[in-house]
Amino acid sequence: RNLLDRDTFSKSDPICVLYTQAIGNKEWREFGRTEVIDNTLNPDFVRKFIMDYFFEERENLRFDFYDVDSKSPNLSKHDFLGQMFCTLGEIVGSQGSRLEKSIVGIPGKKCGTVIVTAEELGCCRDSVLMQFCANKLDKKDFFGKSDPFLVFHRSNEDGSFTICHKTEVVKNTLNPVWQAFKISVRALCNGDYDRTIKVEVYDWDRDGSHDFIGEFTTSYRELSRGQSQFNVYEVINPKKKGKKKKYVNSGTVTLLSFLIETEVSFLDYIKGGTQINFTVAIDFTASNGNPSQPTSLHYMNPYQLNAYGMALKAVGEIIQDYDSDKMFPALGFGARLPPDGRVSHEFALNGNPQNPYCHGIDGVMEAYYRSLKSVQLYGPTNFAPVINHVARYAASVKDGSQYFVLLIITDGVISDMAQTKESIVNASKLPMSIIIVGVGPAEFDAMEELDGDVVRISSRGKFAERDIVQFVPFRDYIDRSGNHVLSMARLAKDVLAEIPEQFLSYMRVRGIKPSPAPPPYTPPIHVLQTQI
């Protein structure tokens, strides 16, 4: 909207060029170009860019605009109209996944705005639940009947076949009924309803040399008719058919049921307006070392971030794209507070218990450095109070409109293991996830136990309803000197990768469906005023 006019006799002929940034060396690479739209300062570009989206990665984008003056593909031959920078998460996390931002890049000029919308490709997120049985299959075993199983293959563009599902083996029968199984439509036919699906029937043998009974072909479209005379298939063995004149078939396979389930995705909820609320809790216990000493994990180095600062920045920058107001409660635990030196396990970093919110990750960093100067590191290391603090908020909105993520940054020495486990088991029923980033050289066995990936966490005989804790040791991501994160991107990725699944598991268990997305943007119609 309102692009600069660079043509003398007519309006600009704009094109938009999208660049993405390589994770390693940060260089910008051209991703694609839209078409050129002649003679307008308010183009609606038609060509779409299809790109992969990962919640846990920060994907930087740059949109450059040019006024095209000739047929040359070389951009330096055309007039630059400005550019816009954003992240893919920023677009997806905006209301209705629609972002409007100013175009910048030409000093002293207003370059207009760009509106970018994102939609998840409905590339068939359906799954199907199917069940099959067979009748009168050929007997292949000398002593008993056959032990049949089915193998499903989808066909590829080049005519080859790829295996996509095997049923279980049903022992000693020529009339097996297999268990129902669920498979994504993508895996079954790559979303192409008319593509051939080949099904082979085998007789299982212990030594792995399974005997081929026969095969048949079908397609998703045929199967989707459900149980009917159309979905009874003759199992044919081509070799037998060639040899025996009277050969009819090697049995039949019948589809018993066919149920389509549409999988909803993390983005469906974000688009429908679910907010992700991000809270930070920082470990201010004495085991971290005195902040004035270079050996301390809280060392106040004027020239570079300490371990806590690095971890906070890497994770926070990604999460903040999904939080509409960018206001983050930031808490500390395990310190003595001024003026009277009382020990607190949930104090506001900005010194305001009524309003612990900080603006953006930069605001959190500022409050963290400020409180380091005023509080005294102490102990013990209790996690339960900050977990319960966030749980109280999460318990008040269980309708799926909000989800809470608590980031605890700690040196991993924990004093209230039993209470923390109890808090986590209770929190597993709430719309929240906990990320623990362990900084420093300690043994993190206790943190691994809380993570619950290996053994589901329990307290007093009660198990957590779902896994809500993700633990990451920060030292795996920094260089030998401990001063540089080798890859901010990899750290953020490993920290955040489990959140979408944890989020979906909460919504599924509660039967919460995504709200419909707000209607797409339609440009206002300009009323032509006529003079009378």
TrEMBL record:
Q: Which domain of life is it from?
A: Eukaryota
Q: Which InterPro entries match?
A: C2_dom, C2_domain_sf, C2B_Copine, Copine, Copine_C, VWF_A, vWFA_dom_sf
Query: Which PROSITE patterns did the record assign?
Result: C2 (PS50004), VWFA (PS50234)
Tell me the keywords, alphabetical order: Calcium, Metal-binding, Repeat
Signal peptide per UniProt = none
What PANTHER family does this protein's entry cite?
Answer: COPINE, COPINE-8
What the record says about family reads:
Belongs to the copine family.
Name under which the protein is recorded: Copine-8
